[in-house]
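G., the chain you wanted modeled:
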Amino acid sequence: MFPFLNDLLDIEVNKTPPDGKFLLISESQNDGSFLLHHFLSFYLKGGCSVCFIALVQSSTHYNCVAQKLGVNLTSSIQKGQLTFIEGLKYAAQCMNIESSAKMPSNRQSNPYHGLTLRDPKFSLKPLYEKISEEISKFQNDLSFLLLIDDVSVFLSLGVSAIDVQDFVHYCQVAACTKQKAGCLVTLVHADHEQGDSEEELLERQLIYKCDLQLHVKGLSSGHCREVHGQLEIMDHNAAMLSGRPSRKVVQYKIMDKNVTFFAPGNSASVL
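Predicted structure as tokens:
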């Protein structure tokens, strides 16, 4: 995977995910999904149990990226090490079942009749209950990873930032307790261009809850072929204890099967 990133995060090889921790990947004007793929492949390779909630891409996409990093998701699912949940498909199925039950029998043949994504009755509760059910199967594991890719998607479905925050909070409580020593990693997107947008509100709320924030953003100087973006790592627990912000800043370049990290201004093209 990305050994230098593990050093930055103080993660040791062959170790389980940090117990009871919430790691937030936030992205602004850039794509932070490479970090999500890192955690997924790194802990599967380490033999840990993983529950992955996919909200952005298909299972085929995630499997293709994982194979480049040396992991076969299909094989991991078959072995019972990985639980893969297509979050939007599951939510849509729940909506469809509920709508069909209230529909006259002669109109149930149309799966889209009476169904809108911005339906005020739409709830994230069924998805949370599915997640809770799946991670309950990890009770004999010393530690496990709950990975959610990208909770900002719910905002485009008409779910409020408060409801998404509550959903993440319940997932955190379900995974990160003394009874269940899991680790929650999720991604949130906010471009910081529209003032107090729902995306920024959600991001701020999740920052208050997380233990460690990995913020991926574009370069202030604009596009560069040799530097694809900047990563800021902020340890909020350390900041609360010391009263001073704990912050590491590196820049990175994404390659086909790896990501290189370096101090700002120290890319190979500059040196």
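The beta strands are 22-28, 49-54, 82-86, 144-149, 182-189, 212-217, 229-235, 247-254, 259-262.

Shout if anything looks off.
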